[in-house]
Amino acid sequence: MIGVKNQWYLETLSKIIRKLAKNQNVIEDNILFFGSSGGGFISLCLATLIKNSKVLVNNLQFLLLNYYRSLLNKAIDSVAPTFEGLSREEIMKKYGYRLSLIELSKRENYSPNITYYVNVKSSPDINNQSIPLIQGYYDQKEFNGLNIIFYSEELEKPHNPLPNDISIEIIKSFAKNNLYNSKPNSQNKIINEEKYPKELENKIKKLKNQNKQLKNSNSWKITKPLRYLTRQIQKIIKIFKK
User: Fold this and answer.
1) pLDDT in tens, 215-238
2) Kind of pairing, strands 54-58 and 114-119?
């Protein structure tokens, strides 16, 4: 998701998510991002870009630069040609916010409240990610909170995420305690039930006016869809008023 010179794919994705959420009347307070490893990095970036959303991560890659050098080099080398011949150092300096969550927090002047599950059996996660995460946010004015849950899981690859069934239970528990709350940060985003029927009544008036105009110049068949839409809106108003 590093992107190219004129487009950061993660930022584009955040705009798409915002539009989808708005279309479904989902306030940003009720959006939860979840991921592990590189998916944790993406989740935390999206939660930084979409203010007031929630984020839950497992063994995330907080600092991409601290990840396995061979894999990191492949990622950087694959996008380097799109940055018009900039050196790797220049890419890091100019586009560091795409590779470092600390730099992104500074750019956005915001950091989400982070819930972070990490396996103590994974020394690379503890030494290269957990400790730098704590140190990185320690003196940041943008910092909004960090809840770290250390667990001990004997796995062939300790960096691997928790089993699916456990992850699902964690997500459900987090959602129950943090989503669908009655007092979101953005009160004005909730549909006002008193205002909504009035808006529908205004739509009916407009539809009736359109019907009148169409009757003067066209047959009743043209106005039939408008009359049907009017009846459906009137039904919705009745439901709200009950």
Assistant:
1) 555 555 556 666 666 666 666 666
2) parallel
Cα gap 57→125, rounded to integer Å? 13
Q: Closest by alpha carbon to 37, among 56, 13, 58?
A: 58
Within its chain, how far is the Cα of 13 from the centroid? 9
Query: CB of 197 within 8 A of CB of 209?
Result: no
CA distance 48 to 82: 25
Please tell me what DSSP assigns to residue 57: E
Return the residue matching tokens 């492949």: 74
Give the Cα separation of 29 and 179 in Å (integer): 7
Asked if 129 contacts 123 with a C-beta cutoff of 8 angstroms, the reply is no
Q: What is the pTM of this model?
A: 0.66
Strands (E) in 22-168, as ranges, are 32-36, 54-58, 114-119, 146-151
User: Where does residue 107 rank: exposed (0-12), middle (13-18), buried (19+ CB within 10 A)?
Assistant: middle
